[in-house]
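User: For documentation purposes, I need each entry recorded in a consistent format: the amino acid sequence on its own, followed directly by the corresponding structure tokens. There are two entries in this batch. Please keep commentary to a minimum and don't merge the entries.

Assistant: Recorded as requested. Entry 1:
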Amino acid sequence: MTEPRVELEHEFSLDIDYDPSRWLELPPRWDTEEWQDIDVWARSCAELFWRAYGRDPGESGISFLAGVLRRFAEAFAPEPFDTRVVLRMWEPTSMPLQLFTMVKPAQGDREETLRFLVGAEDPDAVEPPVVEPFRTELLGEGLRAFRYLRQDDAPEVIAALRYAWRDEEVGADVVLWTATDDTAQIIRASQDIEELAHKVSVAVWDLEPEDEASPDVQS
């Protein structure tokens, strides 16, 4: 789908009311104002997570988890202001699952755009994606799609789960997605992802220079 240029009247950001005992957010790339560097962030989060887990990490537990978190941050930490990334965390020795959320100005036909955002007609899908309506109180009626696909002729099959909404009140399209070659991981996280989808909303920053207020959550 070719997307026309849009003159923005607002800047959008996302509000996600996630449970910090299950989800860990990746800082924007790289947020040196809050963290000295990526290693300090990864080490600090690993220590806190092991402490909350309540078991002895042993000699290598903290270092192992810090290394995992560093690799995820290097691969997935967001750069644009309109994207946020959280990791579904389980045991400290298990691989997290990355979950992306993005907001952008709404444009084009609503149904066509939402189907595009969830990959409803993805030509790389191994079989037709399963697409169904999904409604939340904060974002209204949207779509959810699950599909299997192959990329770049790789032998592994990727499982992909996507949600998309159009917030008509503020004029924004929102998409939430994850993808992995570990299908069992998506199945394990599916209920938590669905719960998180109900807690995503759009915040709007007024671009008027005299307005110094914090963003208001509009939906």
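Entry 2:
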Amino acid sequence: MFKKLKQAFGVGGPSVDTVLSTPAVYPGGVLQGEVRITGGSEPRDFNNLTLSLAATVEVESGDDEYLSRIKFADLQVAGAGRLEAGVNTSVPFQMEVPWEAPFNSLRGRRFERMKLGVQTRFDLPGGKDATDFDPIDIHPLPVHEEVVAAMERVGFNLQSADLEKGSIAGSSLGFYNEVEFRGHGKIPEAELTFVTGPHETRVVIELERRGLLASRERQSNLAGPTQEPFDWDSAIRQHLDELARASGRFFG
């Protein structure tokens, strides 16, 4: 899988290609590739070359919503240096993907509202910085797939997913994921948010206000191991029961 960035710095200026060699990216994994730089018609100094993982998130402001891009991982590929005219340079890189990184692809389906990508910035003194954003797919870990499947086994249907700007306990990204489900009788809609770490994954279950609740404040939190077997079916059913009873209803 190749995701390319190609940006020229004016006529006769240098050009940069960022090529990803990692066929699939996962939370907690490593993004690998190389940055290919071609010198222009004359030597140029540069300040640095950086890569970032970034997400386009939804921001609520009063009654309006707009999109904003947030970086959640950075890597300096090269510091200050000099790029000679016409010289081809290839700089390999390995970039750790945070465990908290949201997945935007599941079972071959991409959640179009979850835009994740690699942003490249080549900083030239006295010139225009080059920045670009190449979409990537971050695939779910087995624990994410198990939780989604557990929700489906108790009667919910996966609908969509998006990213919201804001904070949630235990997260450091500046935004959080919302995986949306619909359709279980007395609980018409539910949302899940994952806070994943190397040892523990916390799942926040929230019942949609348009269905069962009058506000979004009532949530249930459950946690289980990230990389070891766990009975997610029982845990999820128990927490859905608790949410339903708190609203004077019953699940099941």
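Summary note for entry 2:
Residues 142-246 form one domain.
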